[in-house]
Amino acid sequence: MLNSYLTIMRREITYMWRDKGLRYILLLVTLLSLFLFWGTYSAQLLKDIPTAVVDLDRSNASREITDKLKTAENLKITARPGSFAELKELIKQGEVVTGVVIPEDYAKDTALGRHTRIYTVIDGSNFIYATNASTAVLSVTRTVSAEVGIQQLTGSGMQYQQAQEAYRGIQIQQEPWFNPTLNYAFFLVLGWVLNVWQQCCTLASCMIIAGETGMCSWLQIKAAGFSRLKLFTSKSVVHVITFMLLILPVYIIANWVFKIPFNDHFWLLTLFTLVFTISLHSIGALASSVARNSLDATRYGMIIALPSFVLSGYTWPLEAMPQALQVFAKVIPQTWFFQGVNYITFKNPGWEFISHYFIVLAALAAVFYTLAAAITAYRY
Amino acid sequence: MEPVITVENLVQSAGKKTILNRVSFEVYRGESLGIFGTGDTGKTSLMHILAGVDKFKSGSVEVLGFNIKKTEKFKRKLGLVTQAPSLFNDLKVSENLDFIAVLKGVKKDRIPGIINQFELENYLDRPVKKLDSGVYQRLSTACALLNEPEILIADEPLRSTDIYSTRIIITELKKFIAEGGTCLWSFKSPEFFDLADRIAWLDEGQVNMLTPWRAREKWTSQVQDIYNSSGENNAQ
């Protein structure tokens, strides 16, 4: 009994190992993607955003603003165009990401207490750059605006101390939790790597039934009257173990070498990943059970795997999606996994909270495996 | 004589085409039944149904007393050699024997004997996909006989085999029948008529049971007709 399970498992390992393409994809792609994505986000924060200043006033007051922009942490003044048209051209060519235009008569207007406007433009074609640039420029312009306001109040006879207090009246304190430095690498590297991994695993899972029944050797299995349940269970065990063996080194390197925080939940994350792997495999098995052949199975795998990361709500909130998409996203194991990973690695959610994610993944696996078994029994 | 296979009103179709049309026949224990048909006459469909690997549209089939629609128990006593190369391509010869032995629930001590019978000793480490067709068919037949079946169903086992392999396979088939086995084997060439006790001649979805002598006569007559209709009267 056990011998037959072990023999099927051994054959599955032999198949995977002798298929060079599959072997390299499984062994290398996930691990390489970790290094690739870590390299990509190794800066962790966006600094030195190329900035242009158009100083149309050329006064001491306008030079003060330029000096403040110079000292801003994330900005780097790389150009000083003479006109707005020149600035526009620089942004178009991608030479700068943001531009600050100080109008003519800026010094005069502020001295006379008149309304004046500092114009900032941001290249919105790259939203990550745009968001960072916007935050950095805003913090400088807010400071300048406050200083001008204080100057005007003191100009109208108020004591400097009083004027300063007036501007400090409401103190808005920002404190990002769970990722205090708003580190991109912490947020994105693991997400992207897990996305690559789940795609490889989904494609491999989709071959579990169609890959077997699509071959002439399926006749041998049918003629022998060998239990389909035993066959596919043994193959599934090999798949799940293989998928876990692919992701474990990634977790170890990500956590111990690249210091991506797991919130001291390495083992919880590993257990959660195991439950997800089973669930992921079940949806692959279901797709495989309805596929007419291996090519179809691969297509179904791609249809499931490719959009699942975007639909998971990891990079764009699930709640901001149309209702129908939200429902669809919730029957995909990837949605629960990516959200669960986010909670485990950042938020220390506690067992009571995260256990719901375990239960949903296990329930999805039970449903998908049952459907796959019923369809396979009917078809073969 | 005791029938080991009973087929009644068997109907099989593929799309709109009827492949087997209300076919009925019996096969007896210890018999060598040749299934003959030229071209796509439904030999493979019939054999796959009898081996329980294909479903059929209607009718009833009993193998060794089991209704094959209801159980797979008969498969333990059955061996199948398929026409299409159905061994496990990514495994070596020895691995195929080991693996199929497990599928059939056969103890591994049966394997050395079968390797010897089919003279496969020199090929054990070769990947199956690199075997020539003669050795491949020897291995296929060996795998089918691993479980010491009562019935062997062989779909064109001598198709494109070399003389040496043909001799080995025929010897082993004769030995299997002599030891009480029942063999159903299909072929396209009339040269094998005499190796069968009876011939099931498949034509237009019907089975016609003939003696080998009568089958040869029918073949000769058909060939004669073909030559006559083409205007050449030089058939043998």
What are the defining features of this structure?
heterodimer; A: 380 residues; mainly alpha; abc type-2 transporter like fold; four-stranded mixed beta sheet; 4 strands; B: 236 residues; alpha/beta; Rossmann fold; six-stranded mixed beta sheet; four-stranded antiparallel beta sheet; 27% strand
- The total of beta strands of chain B comes to 10
Gyration radius of chain A, in Å: 29 Å
Pattern of helices and strands of chain A: HHEHEHEHEHHHHHHHHHHH
- The oligomeric state of the chains shown is heterodimer
Helix content of chain B: 25-40%
**Can you give the mean pLDDT of chain A?**
90
- CATH superfamily heading of chain B: P-loop containing nucleotide triphosphate hydrolases
> How are strands sequenced across the largest beta sheet of chain A?
2-1-3-4
Low-confidence stretches of chain B: none
Counting helices, strands and paired strands, the structural category of chain B is: alpha/beta
Mean pLDDT, all residues of chain B: 93
Order of helices and strands of chain B: EEEHEEEHHHEHEEEH
Q: What would the principal axes of the Cα set say about the shape of chain A?
A: elongated
Total strands of chain A: the figure is 4
Question: What structural category arises from helix and sheet content of chain A?
Answer: mainly alpha
Indicate the radius of gyration of chain B in whole angstroms.
Answer: 18 Å
